[in-house]
Structures are given as C-alpha cells and as structure tokens.
Design brief:
Blueprint (H helix, E strand, L loop, with lengths): L2 H15 L6 H10 L6 H13 L4 E3 L6 E3 L13 H15 L6 H11 L3 E8 L2 E8 L19 H13 L3 E5 L8 E13 L2 E8 L4 E6 L4 E5 L32 E7 L1 H8 L5 E7 L5 E7 L2 H10 L4 E5 L1 H18 L6
Antiparallel strand pairs: 1-2, 3-4, 5-6, 5-9, 6-7, 7-8, 10-12, 10-13, 11-12
Length: 342
C-alpha cells in the first residue's frame, strides 16, 4: 500500500470515528486540503478499501452523510514506512556493535546488509511506480554503548545453539561462585541470554535437579553429552523473564523480597525514570531524597547496584540486604587502608 493511500484511509477513518458525519463531497474537500488524491474514483476506492478492512461504514440515505455504526471502531495501522525501516535498521546496526566480537554478530549483520534496497509504492495519478531507497548502514546518528564483551569460542556457540534447537543435552566443567572446586555439569539447554557483555544459558541442571544459568565463557571441557536429539522436553516456563522482572540482568533466586533504598544525587536521578521491580513506589522526602520500594528476586545484583551508588544510596530493607551492604562497606574501608585489622 502506498503512503498516500494509507494517509487517505487514515484521514477518512478519522473523520468517521470522530463523528464529523461528512458527505461524499466533504470527504473530497478534506482529501484535497491534505494534497491527497480526491477524484470521485479515488474516494470510492478508499471507501471500498475500508470496507474490506471490516470498517462498519454507514451512509444515511436521506442526508448522504457517512459515519461508523460501531462507535468504537478504529482502522488498524500496522504498516512500517520505508523511512521507518531505514531508521530502525540503522539503529539496530548500531545496537549490534555491542556484540560485535560474538558469533551471533555476523549472522545479524548479514541480515541487515541484505536489506540495503527497500522498495516503496508511490501513487501518482492512480498508477503505482517503484521508488528505490538506499539504506545507509554507516550512519552514526544513533549509538548504543555496551559493557566490555567476554570472548567466546565460536565452536562452543554453534554447538549450544544447535543443541537448543535439537534438544540435545550438553556437558561441561564449571567453577561456581559458591563452590571451592570446579564440577562436572550435565544440562538441558533452554535459552541463550546476552547480559552484561556475556552469553549465558538458561538450562535444567541434572545435578541440582533445578533450572540454572551458566556463563558460557566460563565453561571448560565442553561437549555434547550423547548427541541424541529430542533428549528432553522444554517446560512452558523455560523463559527466565517469566520468573523475574529481569531489571538487574539474568541473575535470579527463588526468594522474593521487598527492597527499599534511599537515594540522593545521581542515583536519585537515575532511579526516578526506571522500573526496578514489581509493585514499585517512589516517595519524595522533605530532605530532597527519594525512597524507592519494589519487590524482586535479584538480591545479589541489587546489592552490587547499591554499593556502586556509594554514598548516594542507603539500604533500608530487607534486613538481610542491610547486613550484607554494611559488611561490604566495612571490608572496603579495611581494603582502602582507612582502618587496620588490629
């Protein structure tokens, strides 16, 4: 559909939806004011197009005025114009720079370069012609800055990607933060997650007998377990986004708590426009600070964020987080040399 035709349909839809009750001639006048095709043939074609979209058009046989007999009807607009396609593609290209050194980058960039020519229909005197539009993939008008990217072996990436789609079990050695020595893991991979410059897999861990997330770049001795396809069933809740707001990345736990932080300065400005968890509230305090309260199951990254805000953040709850926050502050003071161990 040409852009002019789409604009004409939207204009007529607006007239009918807002009870302007236009006659055929008044529709022509409005189209002409907007520099759109307004011949008798064009208007009949537009009205026919609206009816094809199930528009409930009614024409009063006495007055000749048009309206919708269902007042709540509105024409759906799902079309992305060529200009929008170019803009979106250029921005996505910039976003991909964040994962430039990962195996997925080449595949995604090829998809964009295959779109270098987009054709748009332009209506001129009731005829359609083709207008070639070139996409500038070198545009730097929109830039996304990301974290440092962790290196990852392409062979491991390809194996995991294939294993997810073929439902193959994989095995590897992994050093957990909570364990003193590396352990052998056997998992059913469900999902690849890019978070904070690292690729992770959401999976079922047969040793833990529960869902887990492992960082791919930290895996060693990686291989397929037995190579068998369809070796497991993917549960309905495999997506980690269904288990957490995901505001602080992909790290989660089973324990949900209500978190409360008092913020000033940059931390206050940063937090005011963002959602950190469910049931979030922000209270403006008389001293100029804000108190933000929310529910989450991401204690570890919340603690990291609170510590990162330094003196601009005071943890007010829950008590478990307060204790860990204070413990880290004391340790940092000793590390800085401000206090001795004596």
């Amino acid at each position: 559909m040409s852009e002019k035709k789409e604009n004409a349909l939207k204009l007529i839809d607006d007239l009918l939806a807002h009870k302007k009750y236009p006659t055929f001639e008044e529709i022509q006048i409005q189209l002409a004011r907007h520099m759109l095709n307004h011949s008798q043939k064009s208007v009949y074609r537009y009205l026919h197009e609206l009816k094809k979209n199930n528009a409930p058009i009614y024409r009063d046989p006495i007055t000749g005025k048009y309206s919708y007999y269902i007042e709540t009807y509105r024409l759906k607009n799902n079309r992305i114009t060529p200009k929008d396609q170019i803009r979106i593609a250029s921005q996505v290209k910039s976003l991909l720079e964040m994962i430039k050194d990962t195996p997925v980058y080449d595949q995604a960039y090829k998809l964009l370069t295959d779109m270098t020519t987009i054709y748009s229909d332009t209506e001129i005197d009731d005829y359609l012609c083709k207008e070639e539009v070139k996409m500038d993939l070198d545009s730097d008008t929109v830039i996304f800055l990301g974290p440092p990217i962790a290196n990852m072996d392409k062979e491991i990436w390809d194996t995991i990607y294939t294993a997810i789609h073929k439902k193959q079990i994989i095995t590897f050695t992994y050093q957990s933060m909570s364990k003193k020595t590396p352990e052998k893991r056997i998992v059913a991979p469900y999902q690849l997650i890019f978070d904070d410059g690292k690729w992770n897999i959401r999976c079922y861990d047969y040793k833990a007998k529960d869902k887990r997330i492992f960082t791919v770049s930290e895996m060693t001795d990686f291989s397929l377990y037995d190579g068998r396809s369809n070796a497991f069933e993917v549960p309905d809740d495999f997506d980690f986004r269904k288990e957490t707001p995901g505001t602080f990345g992909c790290w989660t736990s089973k324990e949900w708590n209500e978190y409360k932080l008092n913020l000033i300065g940059y931390a206050k400005r940063y937090a005011k426009g963002r959602i950190f968890g469910t049931n979030q509230t922000i209270v403006e305090n008389k001293d100029g600070s804000i108190t933000i309260t929310f529910t989450s199951n991401q204690e570890a990254p919340i603690l990291t964020r609170a510590l990162g805000w330094g003196k601009e953040c005071i943890v007010l709850g829950p008590q478990k987080l307060i204790d860990k926050w204070k413990e880290n502050i004391i340790a940092m003071n000793y590390n800085s040399g401000l206090f001795s161990n004596d």
